[in-house]
Amino acid sequence: MAAWSNTSLLQNTGLPLTGRSRFISQSGVLWSRDIRPDGRGLLKFRPIAINIGSISTADGSAIVKIGNTAVVCGIKLLANTLVVLSSAAEDGEIEVRISELVAPTPTEPDIGYLVPNVELPPLCSPKFRPGPPSDQAQVSGHFVAELIASSGCIDLHQLCIAPEKMCWVLYCDIMCINHDGALLDACIAALIAALRTVTLPHVDFDAETEKMVVHEDRRKHLEILSFPAATTYAMFEDDILISDPTAEEENLCSGVLTIVVQGSQLCSVHKPGGSPLSETQLQDCIALAHRRGNSINKMVASAISSPER
Amino acid sequence: MTMRFLFINFMAGMELLSDQGLRLDGRRANELRKIRCKLGVFTQPDGSAYLEQGNTKVLAAVYGPHQIRVKSKTMFDKALVNCQYSMATFSTGERKHRPRGDRKSQEISMHLRQAMEATIKTELYPRSQIDIFIEVLQADGGNYCASVNAATLALIDAGIPISEYMCACTASLGNGDVPLVDISHLEEVSGGPSLIVAARPLSGQVALLEMSQRFHLDHLPKVLDRALQGCRDIYNILDQAVREHVQAAGSAAGWEGDVAFAS
Prior knowledge:
The complex is a heterodimer of chains A (309) and B (263). Chain A has 309 residues and is of the alpha+beta class. Chain A has a single domain (35-306), classed as Ribosomal Protein S5, domain 2 (2-Layer Sandwich), CATH 3.30.230.70. Chain A is 26% helix and 31% strand. Chain A is built from five helices and 15 strands. Chain A has helices at 19-32, 135-151, 183-197, 247-252, 279-305, and strands at residues 48-52, 60-66, 69-78, 83-84, 93-97, 113-119, 160-162, 166-167, 169-178, 199-206, 211-221, 228-236, 240-243, 255-262, 265-270. In chain A, strands 1-2-3-9-6 form a five-stranded mixed sheet. In chain A, strands 13-12-14-15 form a four-stranded antiparallel sheet. A three-stranded mixed sheet of chain A has the order 4-11-10, with no helix packed on it. In chain A, a hairpin with a 2-residue loop joins strand 14 and strand 15 (265-270). In chain A, helix 3 packs parallel to helix 5. Chain A is elongated and about 75 Å long. Chain A starts with 18 loop residues before the first helix and ends with a helix. Chain B has a single domain (26-252), classed as Ribosomal Protein S5, domain 2 (2-Layer Sandwich). Chain B contains five helices and ten strands. By secondary structure, chain B is of the alpha+beta class. In chain B, helix 2 (103-117) crosses helix 3 (143-158). In chain B, the strands form two sheets. Chain B has a five-stranded mixed sheet with strand order 2-3-4-6-5. Chain B has a four-stranded antiparallel sheet with strand order 8-7-9-10, with helices on both faces. In chain B, a hairpin with a 4-residue loop joins strand 9 (194-200) and strand 10. Chains A and B meet through strand 3, strand 5 and strand 9 of A and strand 1, helix 1, strand 4 and strand 6 of B. Chain B: One of its GO terms (molecular function) is RNA binding. Chain B: Non-catalytic component of the RNA exosome complex which has 3'->5' exoribonuclease activity and participates in a multitude of cellular RNA processing and degradation events.
């Protein structure tokens, strides 16, 4: 039996129809009753699964699945460490980590760095080829970085070890392992969930001798001031708006809209072109995004506090 | 860069095997690490698999056979197998700056391609391409072996014909003369020799053999033997997983009776 390439029924027509018409022609009955090909209503969301802390080599990790879209976020801490003095001295092992010198910038001497990075490897979707980061990866990466900076969810002052001398760098690597639409939703959720599990070791910095002592066993959690959550919508011509599109729907749609909320505040609205949206539709989307944001945050909170972890 | 200075009681004896015959993680010399695997974990690739070997966690995705991307590499009589091995930046103890493209990853990609080409029936798909992508989420030794095993499962999930499973296993020598199977990262860096074997387990044909460090020629047969036995044990585990997966998929589709397998 020859192997099949993973094309879906919807994309196999070979007819150059517009997005909605393509849907209608294949599942005419369904769309007229406002049911999408995967059985959801137009404004329904896919189930979310969250797994925290499964990557033990990372200092904080989270895996988020929204429907079939799966995203892993791993966070690594970096600082200039000279000697580790901790209870590890008992079993005779001293770990000497010599990493890059990390000094704060001269203009902002008392904050650390948070470096998010989004990776869309070729394994997550046939759209991505091996090679340098695709446009979509770079755009998503930039979006996440801007969002974290502007939302103020992390106070970078807590990453400072000694002003003008030493600071922590949090490298947040978000990797998509299966791309089935709503990528930004999953990326933001995974990043926030992973950040909530990161612990910073306590550091004693002697200003005179410029020696640092890292206490691996005394750790404290990062203080996260707010929890942004993203919701993606897709627009079709004839004013159809659907929430949480799958990859198929994203391919066929005429525009996407991503709304990020935190608590009761609106954090970001990202609408890269596409067919126009009326104001009432936008307001409805924002309201729906608020509700979904709350449920995502509740889920992350329960995953973190769950005893099986 | 990380420099791990293991203190005196480690350096002196390189004690990979204790007096009671237990290794650093509590295993016996001939015990594999716990293997957990799952086929068909993702929807986008044609075939996918997730495999855990101890603390090493690997994802494999297979796309194809599909049209060849680089026309100049077209082969008129068989398919082109393209492998990419990539390690997540958070997969190792120290953050990996270059997930792919560094020499070690390229070497492993090439070895992976060579091992899989030895078992995929490429003559059935001339002028086309099969992509195998490996992503290591957590690395704790035996990365190459876990990748080969995961790639085999992903190929089976994609329905690409293979002559036989391709299983890979590492082996080493502990205390100078006891062969150890399936070595972890700690055992790898302790300085002992390490032998990596990728083989077709049932026929015993070796596709790839790689060795580092050195040990006396007299020890080679037993280390190789131990590695091949490891491959056979891994084969049993993988085959069991494949059968369960097909059973589950089949019963969901309403197949009746036992599923017949060609052995």
